[in-house]
Amino acid sequence: MGYHFHQKLASIATSLDANRLMAISLGTTRVIISSHPDTAKEILCGSSFTDRPIKESARLLMFERAIGFAPSGNYWRHLRRIAANHMFSPRRISSLEGIRQRVANDMIEGICSEMKMRGFVEVKGILQKGSLENVLESVFGCDLGLVHGDELGLMVKEGYEVISEFNWADYFSLGFLDFRGVKRRCHKLATKVNDLVGRVIVERRRNGVYENKDDFLSLLLSLPKEDQLSDADTVAVLWEMVFRGTDTVAILLEWIMARMVLHQDIQAKAQSEIDTVMGRNGPVRDLDIAKLPYLQSIVKEVLRLHPPGPLLSWARLATHDTHVDKHFIQAGTTAMVNMWAITHDPSIWADPWAFKPERFIEEEVSIMGSDLRLAPFGSGRRVCPGKALGLATVHLWLARLLQEFKWVPTAQPVNLSECLKLSLEMKKPLTCRAFSR
What we know:
It is a single-pass membrane protein. Its cofactor is heme. It is found in: Membrane. One of its GO terms (cellular component) is membrane. One of its GO terms (molecular function) is iron ion binding. This protein is α+β, with helices and mostly antiparallel strands and about 425 residues long. The chain has one domain: CATH 1.10.630.10. It is about 50% helix and about 10% strand. The strands form four sheets. Strands 1-2-7-4 form a four-stranded mixed β-sheet. Strand 5 and strand 6 form a beta hairpin. The radius of gyration is 22 Å and the shape is globular.
């Protein structure tokens, strides 16, 4: 299937008139795929698909003890409570705005520097650096240190490579065989992560300064004794926050900026909205985003056309025998929702290939999981717990970038070709020019 797995599955489902449900085999793995909101809701919101299938590489990288992949049960419910009540509560998200603003300032400086030195901007690098800085400070606080931060950044990069690697053992029982050295690389990386994050935890506990701090590590260490996690589980949870929180924001923003460069009229309309709301009141703040409906509609339209997790991040595992759309589904079957297929279906969306943010001004569509026509963060019990924080970051940074710069293409046209790895990335990274407004 290569890097267009989502597109090819959508094409097959359409050709077989199997959008509601299609069954395939990936090696010895039984798989059903939904490309329709109705069956997607049965899978994601039903009680039969409460677990996620976990790839061998994800298990070896400790994600089985983190929020995303932990099996349903008391431990997973405990993690979800901590996430909802503490880590991603509205108060916590608001308290982290200062970090988001500082990182936005750094990115703006970086863009000015690149334009001065090179005459163009490589957007991906700036967004990835800013996103990593934002996540590390949100998770560990400002005293993590450059050395630890750089080390963790390299570990995240290595983790993306190894977890995106095709591994035969995920689809066939190969026992001790280790094609492409995936097991060996995962063991080595997990050891490094355990060592580094473990040392950071020990240092923070030794200093004893984590009361009334807003970073996630201090939060976990200051929980009541009955709610606290073991050090091993704390490492897994924090590692997942860094790993998953870094790429999704940067990738989504790169897609948005590519669309802004391509659609100058839409960019100008968003900038006019920002100027009208802000006047001469300085940089956009979190509280201003609610007054920028057109900017929010741009984010929704990019999430529709270029969902960061179009397929692989949607997988569920049937924990017992069940039925979907009247079809019998055996326990142990992997279920996927092809959100890319749903968001490009002409029977669901008018003119689905066109970039039209106005469609979300004309009709209010929730993207938080209640409307399966567009649910980029999932739905049901396994909905992404960090969705509100991710959206707050994307909205603020987009507003700041549009407020500061006019974005125009270089001599090379913008290439919107897709490449599905861990997330849906631009195959050719965006290069453009940014002029101060």
